[in-house]
Structure formats: C-alpha cells, structure tokens
Amino acid sequence: MMLLLFAISLLPSFALYFLMRGLKKDSGEYRKMCRGALLAGATCAVPVVFASMFLNMAEIILGRVLGEDPVLRTVFHTFITLALAEEGVKCLTLFRFMKNKEYDYSWLDVICLMTLIGLGFGLLEDLPYAIGAGAGVMLVRGVLVMHGGYGFIMGYFMGRAGKTGKKSWAAVGFLLPWLLHGAYDCCLSDTLNAVNEDIGIISVLLAGGAFITAVVCIIFILRARRNALYTEPFLRQETSEGPGEDTGGLQSRESDPADNNKA
Fold first, then answer.
1. Alpha-carbon span 169 to 93, nearest angstrom
2. Element of type H or E holding 170
3. Residue 18 included in any domain
C-alpha cells in the first residue's frame, strides 16, 4: 500500500518533467538536457551532503559566538547549514549546464532546466519519507513539489538575468528561493514552535505558496512557449558585422524586455 502511495506522490513531479521535456519535440539535444537536468538534480544530493557537513562545522565553530541561544542556533542551522547548502548546490548545477556553449539557451530553457534540477533533488529527498514517514506527509510533499517550485523561481530570474544582461536578477534568483526555503524549514523546527506555537502557521502558508507556485509554473510554461520573448535564444547579440552574429556572450539590453512583454 505504501509503495502505491509513494508512486502516486511521484506523479506531479513526472508530469512536470514530461511537460517541459515535450516543449521541443524536434530537438533531441534539448530533450537530452532535460533528462540530464533531472538526473543531475538527484545526484547533486551528494555534494549537498558535503556542503552541509562543512557548514555544520562552521556552525559548531560559530557556536561560541551564537552562544547557547537555541533560537539563533536553529535559525543558523535552517538558513545556512540546510537551505544555503541545498540551494547553492542546485544553483551551481545550473551553471554547469550553462557551460554548454554549443546550445543557444532561451529564457524558457533556463526556467525548465532549473525547475527539473529542483524536481530531481526533491524526488531523491522524498525517498526517506517513503521509508519512515506517514502516507499523509509523503503525499503532501509529492503534491507541493517544493524544490521544483524553488527551481522555477530561481530559473525565472536567472533566465531574466541572461536575457537582460543584469546580474542583479541572478542575485534575486538565488536569494528568493534560499530565503523561502530557510523560512519554511525554520518555521517547522520544534525549537521555534516551542517558543511560539503560532509560528507553525507560517510554514503552512509557505507550503500553500509552494503549491500556488507549482500551478503558476505550469500556466507560465504553457503560455511562454508561444512567446518569442521566452523562446528566442539570448546567447546572441548584434555586432558591428551585422545582427544575429553569435558572440557566445549574454545578450545585454538597456531596458528589461519583460517590462513590456509578458507571457
């Protein structure tokens, strides 16, 4: 029975995977990258463990500074040791994909790849819950696809940075999912709930936000696939030799095209 429920909990993630993989049915390279992004997201759990171990040592060293305050220690552990390690490694995984200079990435490509990296990581992270958690927790995690949602947010802003040439959007793309992730983990901690049991409500609201993000992700992709703003490659820019020359660099514009064109 539990095995069946676990399989059901995986359906939302794989539905998103096949949706994004099917955006370019005529591009074998794109479909291969989608598969690779999902697998890379799952395998990045290994460097996440090492990153968390390193940050945990930093947490122990900083313990003298943080003192014995359990709240400060919990905040550091959830935001730094856990959330920073996971979101940081997933972000670096995206950068590794972007090193493929032979492929002209579009804004939508970046969104899909980052979302798939998040989904892959989330699928692997769900395995312990399938073994030790209850059916309810397992199904809720499957429906929320929180790591996929964080990936969608990160991918949107990373893609926007590539489209506009503004690195500030890349910073937003990392900071926003990191803070949301850290806040969710922090509000679920027993330490903070012991201080104020109402804090748990924040985690429920963040979980609801994750579900809304997953829905927005689907709607956005279905609309963006027909919008040239999101589907045209941004690894091209005009040169003195003429428009459309591939310079291998990010496109840079004076104004943000997303301000005037939306999916």
1. 18
2. helix 167-188
3. no
Q: Are 250 and 234 in contact (CB under 8 A)?
A: yes
Q: Any residues with CB less than 8 A from the CB of 168 and at least 6 apart, and which?
A: 161
Please state, in angstroms and rounded to a whole number, the distance separating the CA atoms of residues 32 and 59. Answer: 39
Which tens digit of pLDDT belongs to each residue from 24-74?
988 889 999 999 999 999 999 899 999 999 998 888 888 777 677 888 889
Could you give the count of Cα atoms lying within 13 Å of 157 in the half-sphere of its Cβ? 17
Name the pLDDT band for 259 (thresholds 50, 70, 90): low
Nearest to 79 by CA among 68, 97, 66, 92: 66
Residue 105 lies in a domain: yes
For residue 58, tell me if it sits in a domain: yes
pLDDT at 249: 37
Q: How many domains does the chain have?
A: 1
Cα–Cα distance for residue pair 52/114, rounded to 1 Å = 21
Write down the pTM of the prediction.
Answer: 0.87
Q: Residues 83-90: what's their mean pLDDT?
A: 96
Residue matched to tokens 């959007």: 169
Q: How far apart are CA 200 and CA 188, in angstroms?
A: 6
263 within domain boundaries: no
With bands split at pLDDT 50, 70 and 90, how would you rate the model's confidence at 240? very low
pLDDT digits (tens, 9 = 90+) for 168-187: 999 999 999 999 999 999 99
> Per the structure block, which two tokens stand in for 89?
């490694």
Residue 118's nearest CA partner among 75, 80, 173, 166 is: 173
Could you list the residue range(s) of the whole structural domain that residue 82 is in? 29-234
Report the 10 Å Cβ neighbour count for 56: 15
If you ran DSSP here, which 8-state letter would residue 79 be given? I
